[in-house]
């Protein structure tokens, strides 16, 4: 019979042939990597765990949504509903309190979100990001607060600074640029004064 030898010869020839084929093909002795879509016989649970999608953090989503709706969307509504007499112009308004709460609560929510992230960032990068966010939100708070006070004081945004009634009625008059003009350097004509 062709191709069939004794068991000792067949085993020896097969082993030599397998060794020769493994040597000629690098990586042939390494078992193939398991396919994520086809579970293997052993360790099927581990393969599924590594390819699981990250969990959705419903609690953080709820807190971010609630904070955004109450503190950001509700801010102008609170300013409309609450009477102005409760918040004189030399005190923070309802909108300012909403902004302050936003500036205090959001960094903690962001830290919690970063803490749950599967990838870790360097601590310094996390802190610089949070500080940058708080500084930006604080600058927005100051700008919004100043704008609110200017509008309720009678400032009109469509007019230039010198033409605004609030600037024209400033006392002393030198504050509005209507008093004694500053001394012009030699050779430069003086600036015209508003009557």
UniProtKB/TrEMBL annotation:
Comp. bias (Pro residues): 182-195
Which residue stretches belong to region Disordered? 1-47, 175-195
Superkingdom of origin:
Eukaryota
Species the sequence originates in = Zonotrichia albicollis
Cellular component per GO?
Answer: endoplasmic reticulum; membrane
Family annotation (InterPro entries): CLN6
Name the residues that span the membrane: none
- Where do Low complexity bias regions lie? 1-24
What lineage is this protein's organism placed in? Eukaryota, Metazoa, Chordata, Craniata, Vertebrata
Q: Which GO terms describe its biological process?
A: lysosome organization
Protein name as catalogued:
CLN6
């Amino acid at each position: 019979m062709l191709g069939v030898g004794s068991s000792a010869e067949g085993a020896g020839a097969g082993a030599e042939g397998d060794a020769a084929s493994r040597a000629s093909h690098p990586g042939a002795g390494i078992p193939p990597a398991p396919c994520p879509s086809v579970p293997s016989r052993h360790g099927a649970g581990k393969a599924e765990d590594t390819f699981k999608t990250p969990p959705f953090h419903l609690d953080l989503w709820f807190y971010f949504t609630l904070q955004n709706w109450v503190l950001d969307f509700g801010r102008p509504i609170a300013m409309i509903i609450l009477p102005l007499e409760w918040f004189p112009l030399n005190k923070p308004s309802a909108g300012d309190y909403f902004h302050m709460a936003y500036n205090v609560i959001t960094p903690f929510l962001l830290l919690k979100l970063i803490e749950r992230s599967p990838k870790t960032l360097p601590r310094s990068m996390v802190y610089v990001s949070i500080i940058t966010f708080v500084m930006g939100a604080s600058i927005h708070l100051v700008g919004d607060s100043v704008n609110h006070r200017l509008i309720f004081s009678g400032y009109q945004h469509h007019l230039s600074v010198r033409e605004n009634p609030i600037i024209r009625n400033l006392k002393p008059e030198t504050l509005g640029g209507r008093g004694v003009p500053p001394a012009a350097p030699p050779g430069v004509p003086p600036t015209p004064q508003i009557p």
